[in-house]
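pls read this stuff:
=====
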Amino acid sequence: MKILNKIIFSIIFVSFASVSSVSFAETKMRITLQLPLKAHLGQNLLVFQKELESRSDIKVEIYDSAQLYKDKEVPQAVGSGAIEAGVASITRFAGTNPEVDIFYLPFLFDSEKKIRKATKAGSEIRSILDPAIAKTGAVPLYYQAYGSAIMLSNGGPMKSPADFKDKKVRVFGKTLGAFVSSLGGKPALISGSEQYLAYQRNTVDAGMTGVSGVKSRKLYQVMDTLTVTNHGDIEFIVVANDKWLKSLTQKQRDAIAEASKVAEKAVRDDMANIEAGAYKEAKENGMNIVKLSSSETSALKKASSSVIDDYISRTGGAGGVGDKLVKAANNL
């Protein structure tokens, strides 16, 4: 009888423990990031983490510096559910959604005002892009501003088509590669986390990135000239797995939406200060900062105009999705 009672007690205890562990199990949200946590995108994720954890029972874990996935692997990792969320350059979705490269068309977004209008939640451009990206299983939560694209080189600036001719240039997207090709250069697709070594080993002659990346990755150690071309708007997006989102309670989803709004506004509002600080640090570390004249900008724009025509052709032609996005951008 005593043995029977012990067995019954053990069954009840194990069952209670199992129920308790389910009842008190926390919801985890792992986010993969290719940049160091000290970079402004990492700091912005800390804003998101603080906001979300204060509003819900979701525990956020950030894996920075490509610990889990490189940026090119993020869309598939998040879309498949291998991880709950991740951050990637929006061009990483161009394989399934080539229209996302609207932001990288040369000199299309030539002012901060246009960029803000284009990336605002509910804008005509995002109303087209976000649902299309979501079909991959990776749902956009919010856009992270990364600033304008600039050029890095050694020994001299990249301010004319002649400076690009026959140069091997690091790029991070197909359309940015088309920009280099249109100027006579040879694009090389290299992940952000690998560009330092590419410059250090002279794998490429030049490269493009955002100026904030020059600071966070200490690229001034391997490149001596920064040309302020501002030829594209670099946008990163924070995406979450669709099935994971749908498994959450409405309260949890609302908390994610609110935290996303706060974090998105924070990074967008601080972008000017972030870039100013990055330029300052680059200069203090010996980089030659070269700004383009209006005539030099016009020459680059004219020489690369075919990139926009090619983009429209690749995204449905006249009247297609790319054509609609270009028109929307021109109407901002």
